[in-house]
Amino acid sequence: MSMPHETFECGHTLEELSLYLDTGEFPDPPHLESCPECRSGLDSLRRLSAAGEELFASDLAAAGSGNDDWMKDILAHLALELRPGRSIPLRADDPADTLSQTEGSVLALVRSVTDSLPGAVAGKVRLDGDVTVPGEPVSVRLDLAVLFGHPLMPSAASLRADLAEALARHTELNVAAIDITITDIIDAPREEL
User: Fold this and answer.
1) Are 165 and 175 in contact (CB under 8 A)?
2) Bridge partners, 128 (sequence order)
């Protein structure tokens, strides 16, 4: 989810407020108590988050029970990944420019590459390491559900290569490791006879 970079009259942005709700970090915490514009922005972001949580709760309920536990887990992690997360700095040609991408966009990239692999579904996706410092080593950790009958090791090796290529092309992260854990085997639907 991308947050607009519109700056309030007080000099703060919705992106800063969103990061505050996610992490509790804010450059001037006492300011939040006294600024009506920031308080209004926080209230709006909280309402938006609550509405999103209601939609995910509805999706979780629709996912069913029993053998669908893996789907509930995936939906629960998607809710967390829709947040922008940490800001990842990017190099800029002009020193006056400040460029960044969100952690959420990188997680969405990992999920997109994973979903293109036949017979595999991404579960929990996370970036371990300090992505806010350029050049710091980062590990990509991915839980994977694989359709019964698909070879596990070749699927994981192929996915690791595809992820490395996509991350090198679309990010400036120093990816030290891509750890894939196969956490579930999904039963293939039985055909009606």
Assistant:
1) no
2) 139
Which of 13, 56, 21, 53 has the alpha carbon at shortest distance from 37?
A: 13
Count CB atoms within 10 A of the CB of residue 7: 12
Per-residue pLDDT of the chain (193 residues), as tens digits, is: 344 457 788 988 887 888 788 778 888 888 988 998 888 888 888 877 776 666 656 655 555 544 455 555 555 555 545 566 788 888 888 888 888 888 888 988 998 898 888 777 888 889 999 999 999 999 999 988 877 877 777 777 888 999 999 999 999 999 999 999 888 877 765 544 3
Strands 99-102 and 87-90, bridge-based pairing:
antiparallel
* Angstrom distances, CA of residue 76 to CA of 57, 69, 120, 124: 9, 11, 18, 9
* CB contact set of 99 (below 8 Å; sequence gap of 6+): 89, 90, 91, 92
